[in-house]
Every structure is written in structure tokens, then in C-alpha cells.
Amino acid sequence: MNLENIKAQMRKGVLEYCILSIISNEGRCYASQILERLKEAQLLVVEGTLYPLLMRLKNDGYLSYEWEESRSGPPRKYYQLTAAGKGFLEELRRSWNELVQAVQTAADGNAEIQNPESSNA
Amino acid sequence: MNLENIKAQMRKGVLEYCILSIISNEGRCYASQILERLKEAQLLVVEGTLYPLLMRLKNDGYLSYEWEESRSGPPRKYYQLTAAGKGFLEELRRSWNELVQAVQTAADGNAEIQNPESSNA
DNA sequence: TTAGATACCTTGCAATACAAGATACTTTAA
DNA sequence: TTAAAGTATCTTGTATTGCAAGGTATCTAA
Asked: How far is A72 from chain B (nearest CA, A)?
């Protein structure tokens, strides 16, 4: 159980959230573009991870896509969020924030940490 | 792929960090105690998750334990961090903070969040 | 001896990240 | 035509691991 392994574990749960966020922010984008954005954010994700994940999200109705030709290579699959995807993204955002809060609570010895916003006395 | 599933995924990577943190904060504690602390922090973890994890951490030299009798039940296994465990906990803390930062970067549309090193690019 | 509470541990399944490799289209250049 | 290189999507096999469910052992109380 080395550190890289653990870091990979940590990444796992947040990929859906990050990927949906990126697509939401970009409006529409294709896989290689998403990989680039993740890399920029220091989230190392590879193709073998991303493609099955996009397919899962599509099969669950959170994403739709259209093929579009490129001027410099093979056609691209442009993904965008469906209405259900937008709702799901909101749920993921909430879940992520709750997790961050929970980890802080556990890691800080259950001290009474409050939301930075609400603790503004 | 329902929300509960995803939330479970999100929890996965941070369990080691939370558990080592709790043991570090308490000084020494036994499994049922850890489960209680995690529950207080809204991190739902069950025995079948915790025990194998404690054993892994012990086998990797991050934890040691001593048996101790209880006045009201079977003996307890009290865990505490080894020197290596303390170092590992620091690494996990750093990794967690990096992840939180990375997710924020990805989710916020790669807005320029404080990135000390690339600030003069 | 029976029941219940507390505590620790194991087995089997399901989910999934990732390494590695496959497929397919386009351009460029012999 | 053929070959090579670049871009893009997708599949297969493996290893890890969280968790449901069940098991073992100790102590207390009737």
C-alpha cells in the first residue's frame, strides 16, 4: 500500500464530479479535451479510465453526444449534459462538499469546524 | 450508478487518512471507537471495511497494537501510530489537500485559484 | 445454561481504475 | 498505391478494495 496507490484511490470517487463539471463548464467537449483539462488540474487520468466512465454516464442518461468531423484527424464525439445530468451534477457537488466537511471533522479531532462562510461571526 | 454508489466511491480514498487521523488524535484507540468517531463525522463505515483496513495498515508498519482487557466485555485491541505511521499520515494529509485543490480547479472551470508556482506565467 | 451485549475477524461479491493494446480516420510523402 | 505518423475512440484483463453477511470469542446477568 504505497502512497501512489492511495492517491489513486482518492481520485476515484471524484472523477464523475470533475468530468461532469468540466463538460458543464465547457458547454460541450470531446474526450481528449477532457483529459487535457484534468491534466491541467493535476488530476492524472488516462484513456482507459475516461472512456468507460463517459459511457456509463451516457448510459445512465446524464450525457448525450454528437459526432462531429474534425479538420485535422478522425471525427470527434462531443458530449454535453442532459437535464438529468445537470441535476446529477448538483447532487455530486453537494456530496463532494459534504465529504470535504466530514473529512475535516474526522481529521481535526472532531473539533467544531464550521463552514468558513457561516463562521464569519 | 446511483448517488449512494458514487458517495461510497468518494469515501473510499480518504478512509486511510481519516482513520490514521483519528488514531493520532486519540493517541490510542480500538476499532469500535474508531467506528464511532467516523459515524460522528458522518462517514458511514462498517466493520467489514474497517478491520481489513486496520490489518493492512498494521502489516505495512504504520500501526501497532496491544491487547487490553475491558471491564465490560471482551478484550480490546488498542492501536497506535508507529513512527512510520506518523510520517505516512503527513503524506496523506498533503495528498488530500492537493486533491481538494485539484477538484476545485477542475470543477470551477480552471479559474485561477492560488497556484503559487505558475503565478508569473 | 441461556440470552444479550460487546468486540474482533473472515468470506464472497461487485465495482472500477488503469495498463496495454486494438481500431479507425486523416494527412503527408515516397 | 503504400507507408508512416498523428489524432481520436474503444476494449480486454488484472488488481484492488468497500461492503454485506456471517462467524468466533468474551463478559454479564438472569
From this structure: 26
